[in-house]
Amino acid sequence: MQDHQPISSIPILQKTTDSFFSLCERVRSIEAVGGMVLLIFATIAMFWANSQYADSYQNFLHSEISLNIAGWVFSADMHFIINDILMTVFFLVVGLEVRREIHEGALADLRVAFLPIMAAFGGVLVPALIYWAISSPNISQGWAIPTATDIAFAVGVLALLGKSVPSSVRIFLLTLAIIDDIVAVLIIALFYSGGLDVFGLGYFVAGVAIIILLQKMGIFSIFPYVFPSILIWYGLLKVGVHPSLAGVLIGLMTPVFSRPHNLSPLQQIENALNEYKHADTCDLQQSITKLKLAQRELINPTERVSYLFSPWVAFLIMPLFALANAGVDIGNVDLGVIGSMNAMIAIAIALVVGKPLGIFLTTWFFIFIGLGRVPAGFNYRWLFLISCLAGIGFTMSIFIANLAFTDAILLSSAKIGILIGSSIAAILGLVIGLWVIYSMKNRGC
């Protein structure tokens, strides 16, 4: 076996490339960045939709993309591709997060998770009731819009407050937002899906069966799971359930353990390295393949898939979703239409008032009766901050609004209500967070 020739100096372009990728790794680890990118693209969408180039914005949303494979033709506009196909990957990451938290995270111990779980249910119930109480009958189907929390935005705003925020506060918000997402997914599946068509169940069952079979066969590579995942997505589309929910199901089915083997991944790597050192030219590639497989198993599939897709979700899919859905032409919004003004105000109030009220009072109640265990470093000031941040409903709220309202004017009004409510909640969260940190420093905490 021939050794690699030593390199006395690294080429300048290679150094530049290495520095660039190192910077990208640092950027992706900063939680506030994802929320900032989302905000930038939402702002671009608003300006684009209300500029002299508004027609090009609509052309972008309705531009057709076709795929022809051996006579099989698939055609869809950009809006469908973003909302129904790409958002499946977003829901996949949500499902992976839930799966991981159930296995070894905040949801693994129900005694610890009880308080944020109850808080999440309070944060869903109260804004829904407030919306229902102040909305007219023709817009009542939008009751679920203000029940959702945008994890990226909420955690991003919290991250802007710096290291003064205790880790228990972040974990409480994450757990609350995850439960919020689970409830939102269930709401979409139960209340915002069309009439069920049993014809699609065959595709759905086949996809699930193939995934289970592949796991039993010990195939833990990602690519073989693409085809059954497409079957599940297509099956849900045919059944009448929103197809992007396939991502949640696939995420929940992803194993949290590495591929079963008689040896641990570290032992496999050690054996593969020994083989590599003593391999001749013919066996060299085989040794390298074993080394790659062993290295892959160091990280369980849930972590591996999440690490692979999270950057795409944070820096491509969610920004595209914001670009495709936040662009409301304010000039075309007619608040004189019955229910239009009502929908906007009801959503904004439910997000800004209903969310904090539901979360804070529910948490206080269970602490008061002794069923809730307060995390270390957690107090009512931090709870008030979290309750306000949970009113940032952006991504999931817009997603539900698209399902709730078919009328373009009502949908535009709903989106404006979401943007207003989410913006106020974010500003309130920042102001309250700065006040809490300032007061704690003055008290020497």
TrEMBL record:
Keywords of this entry: Antiport, Cell membrane, Ion transport, Membrane, Sodium, Sodium transport, Transmembrane, Transmembrane helix, Transport
Transmembrane segments: 30-49, 69-98, 110-134, 173-192, 198-214, 305-324, 344-370, 382-404, 416-438
Membrane topology: Multi-pass membrane protein
Pfam families: Na_H_antiport_1
Catalytic reaction annotation: Na(+)(in) + 2 H(+)(out) = Na(+)(out) + 2 H(+)(in)
Compartments in which it is found: Cell inner membrane; Cell membrane
Keyword set includes Ion transport: yes
Domain of life: Bacteria
Family: Belongs to the NhaA Na(+)/H(+) (TC 2.A.33) antiporter family.
NCBIfam families in the cross-refs: NhaA
Function: Na(+)/H(+) antiporter that extrudes sodium in exchange for external protons.
The protein's name: Na(+)/H(+) antiporter NhaA
Highest classification ranks of the organism: Bacteria, Pseudomonadati, Pseudomonadota, Gammaproteobacteria, Moraxellales
